[in-house]
Amino acid sequence: MTTPRILAVVGAALAAQTTAPRFLDAAANVDLPLVAVVFAGLTGGPVVGLWTGTAGGLAQDLLSGGVLGVNGLAKSLIGTWAGWMSVQFITFQAWRRAVIVGAATLANAACVVGVYALVSTPGPSAHLRGVAMQGSANASVGIVATAVARWAPVMQTRRRGRRGRARFHRRTR
């Protein structure tokens, strides 16, 4: 993925994360920037995951009003880990990516809660049930994102191919 495309995906995820909970109650449990960071790490490698996580996490910190840098640290670690997983293992199947997104959700929650425990400022608390629900929701969104990313270029190529061909119909007798 190119840098403008990564920035567009993370920006869209942040915009959807801040606006969707106003309209949908179920969308409040999905961490779209985390899914975007994991997806960037899986497709681009550890360095791409690191920088995507840093940028997405810091932007999420700025929009959420929490301690600046907590989500940046957590998401950069998660992006690096996801990139490392893509280098070490075969992660093309959707279920494997879903498992990685679910594990990344648990690690992200542990990192954020752990950093807030070290800082004297009160922060979010995580319950295992809520984190598990968020992990399954993030994994579902990750499966859909993987399918869209896999089929969008194919559909675009088919659409371009149809536009360029002249269509001649046979006469039937």
Topology:
Blueprint: H1 3-23, H2 32-44, H3 46-64, H4 70-88, H5 94-118, H6 128-164
Written overview of the protein:
- With 173 residues, the protein is mainly α.
- It has one domain (3-156): Arp2/3 complex 21 kDa subunit ARPC3, CATH 1.10.1760.
- Helix content is 77%, strand content 0%.
- The protein contains 6 helices and no strands.
- The protein has helices at residues 3-23, 32-44, 46-64, 70-88, 94-118, 128-164.
- Helix 2 (32-44) runs parallel beside helix 4 (70-88) and helix 2 (32-44) crosses helix 5.
- The chain starts with a helix and ends in a 9-residue tail after the last helix.
What is shown here, in short?
Helices cover 77% and strands 0% of the residues. The protein is built from six helices and no strands. 35% of the residues are buried.
